Amino acid sequence: METIISKIAIMLVPALLAIILHEVAHGYIAEKFGDPTARLLGRLTINPFKHLDPVGTIAIFVFGFGWARPVPVNPGNFRRPRRDMIWVALAGPTTNLLLAIISAFLLRGLGALDQSSFGSSSTFSQFVAPVKMMAGFSLYINVLLGIFNLLPIPPLDGGRILTGILPERYAVLISKLEPFGFVLILFLVFFTDIWSLMLQPVITTFVLFMAGDEARLVEQAMHFLFGR
Questions:
Q1: Active site residue: 2, 23, 31, 178, which one?
Q2: Residue 69: CA atoms inside 13 Å, Cβ hemisphere, count?
């Protein structure tokens, strides 16, 4: 039980920040382009209860990734709906990338600390080691969410970007996948090799590159949290 509580404590803040700020970024950029829907519905807030999806939240602690309730966006309020929607869609993954960079700097900074500055090594480990794990998990989940959401499948951000780039007749065809997109994503992740052969190697490469000499701390955090 103590181990489970420790895992939740390490994962909770990084996971909430990753998925909530991702959604808030969509709503914030949408308002900049003329759509106040998210603000009017009270979604431009970091209050987790305004964003969390029960299944998506549980998935974070079980699988290491998850999702929040999408922030509502009404492209009809945009001056140039297709173009503006590209920027709104990019806002989420971009936010995750920025959070990953911040996490990487924090991880490297903690790794460079001189343990002797904190007295005994046991005191250092007690207070700093969990923060290292939080930074390592934050780096991992933000890279994962940033890359995963760029898959060109509606309703993921990559799908919305694709429909904004393609000629309109092709964009209409792609958008018709949106009602079935979530099922398609689950099928691709759990019943094909796309995760193990494509996504996981790309995510791991980015995480290890950003972590640099502290990559072992990320590996230790993931082993502690998920046994991998």
A1: 23
A2: 15
The confidence score (pLDDT) of residue 103 equals 95
With H, G, I as helix, E, B as strand and everything else as coil, classify residue 23.
helix
Task: Tell me what pLDDT residue 112 has.
Answer: 76
Q: 6 CB contacts (<8 Å, ≥6 apart)?
A: 130
CB 97 within 8 A of CB 89: no
Spell out a b/e string for 99-138, using b for 16 or more CB atoms within 10 Å of the CB, else e. bbeebbebbbebbeeeeeeeeeeeebeeeeeeebbbbbbb
Indicate if the pLDDT at residue 113 is higher than 80.
no
Query: Does 116 score more than 60 pLDDT?
Result: no
- pLDDT category at 163 given cuts 50, 70, 90 is very high
- What is the pTM (predicted TM-score) of this model? 0.89
- Asked if 44 and 38 touch (Cβ cutoff 8 Å), the reply is yes
Q: Which among 54, 68, 89 is positioned nearest to 21, based on CA atoms?
A: 68
Active site residue 23: yes
Residue whose entry in the numeric block shows the structure tokens 């009809």: 76
- Residue among 141, 159, 136 at smallest CA distance from 149: 159
Backbone φ and ψ for 66, nearest 5 degrees, come out as: -165, -165
